[in-house]
Amino acid sequence: MEQWLAHTLPFLSNNDIFTPDTLAQYWGGLVVTVQLVFLSLLMGIVLAVPLAVGRASRQAWISRSIWFYTYVFRGTPLLIQLYVIYYAFTYVPGVREAGFGAFIDNATYPALLSFTLNTAAYTTEIFYGAIRATPSGELEAARAYGMSTFTAYRRVVLPSAFRRALPAYGNEVIFMLHASAIASAVTLTDLTGAAYYVYSRFYSPFPAFIFVACVYMVLSFAIQGTFRLLEKRMLRHLKPA
Amino acid sequence: MMINLHGYGPRLLDGALLTAELAVLSLLLALVIGLLVATAKLTRSGPLRAMGTLYTTVIRGVPDLVMMMLMVYGGQILMNMAVDHVNALIGTNAFIEFNPFAAGVVTLGIIYGAYMSETFRGAFLAVDSGQIEAARAYGMSGWLTFRRVRFPLMMRHALPGLNNNWMVLLKSTALVSIIGLSDMVHVADQATKATHRPFLFMVPVGLGYLAMTAISELIVRYLKRTFDVGFDGRQA
User: Fold this and answer.
1) ipTM higher than 0.90?
2) With an 8 Å Cβ cutoff, are A181 and B171 in contact?
3) For B93-137, what is each residue's pLDDT tens digit?
4) Which of A120, B14, B62, B112 could lock A44 by a disulfide, CB 3.0 to 4.6 Å apart?
5) pTM listed for this prediction
6) How far apart are CA B184 and CA B206, in angstroms?
7) Largest CA distance in chain A
8) Which pLDDT tens digit goes with each residue over A129-170?
9) Are residues B106 and B196 in the same domain?
10) CA separation, residue B24 to residues B173, B178, B205 (Å)
11) B103 touches chain A (CB under 8 A)
């Protein structure tokens, strides 16, 4: 132990990488990342629920146009979507006059918009799959009780679909956390941006990136654990006795 | 219809080629790593299994971009150090240029190797053990059993998962544009900054990804037919 300390202490006392200044950078990055991911996931769900219902609609034009949206957003890299939206606000003339000045001055807004549209596309497909997997008996029972389509969706189809969607949605949350790292490509100082700043200032990639990788890992495990708990609670009725 | 690409057309095509090369080479590496790690996870050896699990757990917890930055910026320093060390040791004055393309391939291969290994592991477990017993009863060696029985039977179960991973990998290649490789996203990014035309370059690049997906879907359909031989589709 003492030998180990003798080896490590010089690193800790003479380290000029993890100073209060850089730790503040990392903290700021963590706040940006968590905000971006949380807000885009929240807005993504709000969009995805009606879209998933529409995707399951028997009206071909509704279901086809929603399919087209999810196909494009799931088939192209998020980075492209981010660039298109970011540059569209920057370079298309008349954006500021139309009241979108904030979108030009602060890259958070284009980033939020592209992340939201992207996660909404994936979430729509997850929910749609869950809605389609509704046992037909549940629907028939709802009908037999005289429920309208709206009531049947609200009381029967959606609650059971959300439960079924839970494991896949947990993966999407982790995917979104990891995908948000590209926010650093449009001038935002998120966790990855902070790591890049520390790297470029001290030219020391290993502490900078390994530290941030550990932060991401802790966040991922926390999300995974939360969803495990949720699944345990909400899918209890599906557990083999 | 002709669109004016302001002279960026050939560079965009080069970028598309780089994207395709990067994606295919990383896929091959990921498949090899995935098979090896899946085998390690299925052995009875405790340390091998633990190493395999550690590898997949770490990779799944870290964003691709962070991994890539670590490998590219860190790899450069590590390689310089290693070369200096060798130079000092044998008194030469060699210099090896760090190749970011190779670093990109290795990084993507290592990341998606982890995902592939999970797919392969599940697929190996799904192979009917009676088939392997039959192969053994015919006197096939371990390798021959693998080549003739376990691998082809496993691939039928693995194909959908492999296809999924490949789609994610293909889109992940876009990240190399951030670390300075001239893939099609990088070219489009530079062209947009120079011409201030946000849709002119990004939309064709997006279509490029959709086209690559469509081509790979055809290949997957062919592979599915190959590995489904002997199963009439009614069996799960």
Assistant:
1) no
2) no
3) 777 777 888 889 999 999 999 999 999 999 998 888 888 889 989
4) A120
5) 0.87
6) 10
7) 77
8) 999 988 888 889 998 999 988 899 889 999 889 988 998 999
9) no
10) 10, 19, 18
11) no
Q: Which of B165, B181, B197 is the C-terminal boundary of a domain?
A: B181
Question: What is the domain count for chain A?
Answer: 1
Name the nearest CA neighbour of A166 among A142, A136, A133, A138: A133
Distances (CA, A) of A117 to A82, A124, A129: 10, 10, 19
Amino acid in the structure at residue B50: A
Q: Average the pLDDT over B39-53 and give the result.
A: 87
Is residue B150 within 8 Å of residue B132, measured between CB atoms?
Answer: yes
Which domain, by its residues, includes A227? Answer: 24-235
Tell me: the pLDDT tens digits for B191-221? 888 888 888 889 999 999 999 999 998 999 8
- In sequence order, the 6+-apart residues with CB closer than 8 A to the CB of B43 are B49
Distance in angstroms (rounded) separating the CA atoms of residues A107 and B207 = 25
Q: Contact at 8 Å (CB) between A169 and A234?
A: no
| CATH number, position B106 | 1.10.3720.10
Burial class (CB in 10 A: 0-12, 13-18, 19+), B117: buried
**Interface residue of A104, A176, A178, A186 to substitute, partner B, most B CBs within 10 Å:** A178
Tokens representing residue A12 in the block: 């800790």
Give the number of A-B residue pairs with CB atoms closer than 8 Å.
109
Interface of B with A in 107-166 (CB under 8 A): none
Residues A192, B69: C-beta atoms closer than 8 Å: yes
Contact A199 B197 (CB under 8 A): no
Domain contains B233: no
Cβ contact A81:A185 at 8 Å: no
Higher pLDDT, B49 or A104: B49
Residues in chain A with CB shorter than 8 Å from the CB of B198 are 83-84, 87-88, 90-92
Does residue A78 contact residue A118 with C-beta atoms inside 8 Å? Answer: yes
Of A77, A184, A205, the CB nearest to B209: A77
Cβ pair A209:B66 closer than 8 A: yes
Given B61, B175, B203, which is nearest A216 (Cβ)? Answer: B61
A72–B67 C-beta distance less than 8 A = no
Domain-embedded: residue A208: yes
Compare all CA atoms of chain A with the CA of B203 and give the residue at the minimum distance.
A84
Write down the mean pLDDT value for chain B. Answer: 87
Provide the domain limits for residue B116. 28-181
